[in-house]
Write a sequence for this structure.
């Protein structure tokens, strides 16, 4: 400071004046730069808040429970990241948190984490987090998600060092890599939480992930039934940084509420054709898509009135799928659970005469007086049909399930079969499913990234906790299911698919009804969105780094 004073004193009056002038100019420039930068930052933050409207409820922002809520799945896809990721723009699976190698025998996947990957709280993500997610949570006996749990049954998971982890299978599985898109959980936060209590832990309201966005505060549920959560850009994100700084999700209790609040959101997914027509606005662009999921009428093949093939065949022939699709505003009928195949050339087509003949051959004669079928003992042919009750959760799904079940009841009544419909909330329905306490079950199965049908149709899964909802058991089908899993040759794979589809069609363990068509609406202010194939609704965000909100 003294040196500056002495230097200033040594200057002439003219030099002092010039120095003071330039000092003022310098300070003004710095101040203006600060103001301009603050204004720019403020404008970017304000203009780049993207709001997504969804129907349903935000409940658990946790990647290991997203099968139970599509809103949770949407948010989790932005908050968490996995070893691999699916790119909807290319239709391919790509490396995300790690690179990997596959052994020559196609049994061992070894993953090496990338450098400089951090959790939202600043802690570094390492292989212990990966091991914790898969081995200590998913493979735990107390883990409560049977769909996810079945994918890692019998898989040996090893922590090799702080950067590497391996997965070793009992037999090759071409679908296994697709299961490793699951978001990784932070061990340093959840290691002391009992797995049995993880689904109700406070972590699910304000989670810590490693994805491109982080949760600002726990989600809120307002008095009018809406729930919302705000995300902000993760400045430590290891991947391509998005330009949209903030994302808000608002979950509305009904479609009517979504429409009435149109000014609040920029995009809305999982809408149906009539809903899109009701939202006929020039500033919205619609994108149509189908997902690898289907709804079927599953037969309990162990039930006394459905254990004969001709009984199941008679019911299958009596169901008019096109009448159902017209009533529920869907357009894609299916006839096999193998969604990679063409659905148009299969054997179970609507035919009332064949339906009546098959039931007669099975020992059920039509009583002309009552209009119902009876057997030699005079017992009426009566079946219990279970479905999920979506009321209070999703109005459109409730409408679809209700109409489908009632139409099935009406169609079967025409051939003398009495159907009693029972609707249950998810928890109670799950308990009945585990006990196989039904004759017929109207239910949807979503394959998502993993198009493997092992968990749904292999004989080993016809257990209390298994997902083989028809208790379907056929050694020939098992052989083809295993061949599909283990084949990395596309020609062999396609052949096994065709053979399995024929076997299942012959045995009639279910009536495969439809795959729903959906629409995604996006504000014209948003550019950069693109997709080739969506496998899950959340895949619409797979290229979020290219989106621009104008």
């Amino acid at each position: 400071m003294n040196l500056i004073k002495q230097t200033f004193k040594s200057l002439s009056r003219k030099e002092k004046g010039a120095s003071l002038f330039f000092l003022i100019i310098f300070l003004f420039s710095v101040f203006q730069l600060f103001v301009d930068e603050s204004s720019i930052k403020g404008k970017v933050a304000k203009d780049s808040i993207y709001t997504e409207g969804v129907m349903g409820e935000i409940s658990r922002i946790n990647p290991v429970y997203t099968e139970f809520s599509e809103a949770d799945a949407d948010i989790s896809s932005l908050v968490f990241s996995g070893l691999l990721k699916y790119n909807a723009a290319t239709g391919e699976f790509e490396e995300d948190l790690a690179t990997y190698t596959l052994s020559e025998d196609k049994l061992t996947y070894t993953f090496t984490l990338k450098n400089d990957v951090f959790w939202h709280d600043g802690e570094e993500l390492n292989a212990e987090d990966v091991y914790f997610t898969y081995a200590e949570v998913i493979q735990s006996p107390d883990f409560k998600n049977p769909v996810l749990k079945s994918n890692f049954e019998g898989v040996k998971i090893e922590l090799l060092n702080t950067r590497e982890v391996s997965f070793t299978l009992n037999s090759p599985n071409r679908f296994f890599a697709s299961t490793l898109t699951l978001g990784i959980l932070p061990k340093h936060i959840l290691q002391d939480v009992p797995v049995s209590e993880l689904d109700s832990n406070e972590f699910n309201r304000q989670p810590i992930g490693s994805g491109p966005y982080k949760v600002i505060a726990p989600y809120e549920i307002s008095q009018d039934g809406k729930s919302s959560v705000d995300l902000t850009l993760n400045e430590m994100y290891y991947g391509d940084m998005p330009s949209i700084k903030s994302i808000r999700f608002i979950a509305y209790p009904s479609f009517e509420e979504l429409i009435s609040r149109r000014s609040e959101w920029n995009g809305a997914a999982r809408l149906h054709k009539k809903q899109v027509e009701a939202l006929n606005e020039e500033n919205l662009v619609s994108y149509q898509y189908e997902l690898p999921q289907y709804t079927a009428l599953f037969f309990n093949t162990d039930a006394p009135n459905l254990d004969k093939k001709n009984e199941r065949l008679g019911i299958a022939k009596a169901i008019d799928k096109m009448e159902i699709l017209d009533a529920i505003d869907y357009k894609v009928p299916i006839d096999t659970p193998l969604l990679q195949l063409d659905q148009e050339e299969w054997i179970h087509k609507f035919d009332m005469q064949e339906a009546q003949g098959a039931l007669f051959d099975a020992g059920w004669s039509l009583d002309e007086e009552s209009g119902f079928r009876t057997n030699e003992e005079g017992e009426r042919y009566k079946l219990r049909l279970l479905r999920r009750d979506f009321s209070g959760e999703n109005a459109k799904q409730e409408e679809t399930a209700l109409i489908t079940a009632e139409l099935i009841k009406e169609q079967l009544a025409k051939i003398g079969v009495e159907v009693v419909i029972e609707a249950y909330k998810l928890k109670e329905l799950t308990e009945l499913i585990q006990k196989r306490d039904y004759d017929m079950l109207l239910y949807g199965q979503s394959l998502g990234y993993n198009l493997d049908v092992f968990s749904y149709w292999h004989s080993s899964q016809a257990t209390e906790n298994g997902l083989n909802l028809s208790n379907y058991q056929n050694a020939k089908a098992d052989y083809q299911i295993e061949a599909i899993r283990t084949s990395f040759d596309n020609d062999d794979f396609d052949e096994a698919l065709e053979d399995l589809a024929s076997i299942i069609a012959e045995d009639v363990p279910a009536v495969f009804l439809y795959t729903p068509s959906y629409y995604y609406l996006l504000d014209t202010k948003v550019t950069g969105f693109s997709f080739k194939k969506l496998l899950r609704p959340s895949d619409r965000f797979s290229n979020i780094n290219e989106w621009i909100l104008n």
